[in-house]
Amino acid sequence: MSTTTSTAQIAWRRQRRSLLQSAAWAGLGATGLSWAAEDPTGGDPLGSMQWPLIRDAYMGAGKAYRFSPEVLVKGPPFAEDAMNVPVMVDARPLLARGLKIERIEVAVDRNPIPHVLTYYPERALPVLAFRFRMEQGSPVRAMVRTSDGQWWVGHTWVDAAGGGCTVPGATRKDGTWSRTLNHVQAKLFNSVLQGQSTRLRVRVMHPMDTGLVSGIPSFHLEDLVIRDDQEQDLARLEMHEPISENPLLTFELGAAVKGAVHISGRDNNGNTFFQEVGA
User: Fold this and answer.
1) Are 46 and 155 in contact (CB under 8 A)?
2) What are the helix and strand counts (H, E) for the chain?
3) Residues contacting residue 190 through CB under 8 Å, at least 6 positions apart
4) CB-based contact 147:183 (threshold 8 Å)
5) pLDDT digit string, tens, across residues 78-135
6) Closest alpha carbon to 94 in 116, 72, 120
7) Is 48 exposed, middle or buried (0-12, 13-18, 19+ CB in 10 A)?
8) Is the pTM value of this prediction over 0.85?
């Protein structure tokens, strides 16, 4: 492909993305919905052919949704390390509408395993930071379901050199993963988000094998639950193979924390972990 052609295609893609995103943020009327139905990308502002499959898989075919700037997805323009791509999802603007957030689905259109995680904020704020693996440049989606049954979709585009899902992690290569498996490090911080708030940062040592490397089966964390001293859920997280090795997760617990916080979970082989961190 010539440099001229490549540059022209990139410019076209950016222009199309900008126009579609402007239309999507404004909302689709009857004409827009008809046009989106004929568009093989389903009217996706990022022009992804995979979007209709992602939409139907994680929100359900025919479900009401809208692309919204009130769901913020922040990531780097280019992933320097495709095995550790930092992303933050923030759906707090939806709270200002008086909406209760039931769950957040995160997916990467062009990953061989698109589903990254499902987050249930429960009594925490709908904010989550994490790292994940990318196989190639792709849209990164956050699909937020509110208690009225509506879906709100935010996204960003992250370019990547690729290969993050199909190579073993560092601890798998050197064999040290078994010595630290499911060890947990956790700390609470004061946060400026939403007034007086508590931030929880958690690292769980785990190889997070995707199952896409020859001879290494899928081996990953599945569930993580955060509870207060009264054994009430503060937040729940379901994780899938694309989460990075030794996951580093940041939660915004809001003002709900009283006393110690209890963190527990398990991986897909049944190994469990537990950690208590003082307030």
Assistant:
1) yes
2) 6, 16
3) 196, 197, 198, 199
4) no
5) 999 999 999 999 999 999 999 999 999 999 999 999 999 999 999 999 999 999 999 9
6) 72
7) buried
8) yes
